[in-house]
Design a protein that fits this description.
The chain has about 140 residues and is an all-beta fold. About 0% of the residues lie in helices and about 55% in strands.
Length: about 140
């Protein structure tokens, strides 16, 4: 039965959105999204679904849903998920992460709501040594 299935909380996994550095290509047009594994062990079969949605210029908009897969993400490491055009930052940006850890399938939705990707919300991003916005 459904009540017999344990629901385990996702811990030590971060999604971060950071502006590109001035020396990086297209630094004025794009930010980058990272998945950061802060666990002491690797995670496996990592699937990320990303999509943007919300109102933009008076119209409801929805971006294409993109999917990414990593067979393994090492402990204490970061992988770049995707570049995000600055125009899309005004939408809600959703990242749904699924992964296997200790033979259990975890999933969690991370949503950067409109207005959350502003400099007043910046913090130091672990392992990247850069400032941006992150959700644990």
């Amino acid at each position: 039965m459904k009540k017999d299935i344990p629901i385990r909380k996702v811990e030590d996994l971060v999604v971060a959105v950071v502006p590109r550095m001035e020396h990086e290509e297209d630094h004025e047009d794009f930010w980058d999204t990272y998945l950061i594994n802060l666990k002491a062990e690797p995670i496996y079969s990592v699937i990320v679904n990303s999509a943007g949605y919300g109102e933009l210029d008076g119209e409801q908009r929805r971006t294409t849903t993109l999917r990414y897969f990593w067979e393994k993400i090492e402990p204490m490491s970061a992988v770049k998920i995707e570049p995000v055009p600055i125009s899309v930052l005004r939408l809600a940006n959703e990242y749904w992460i699924s992964f296997s850890f200790h033979n259990y399938l975890y999933d969690k939705k991370y949503v950067f709501v409109p207005g959350s990707l502003e400099e007043i919300h910046f913090t130091e991003i672990p392992l990247l040594a850069r400032k941006g916005v992150m959700i644990r």
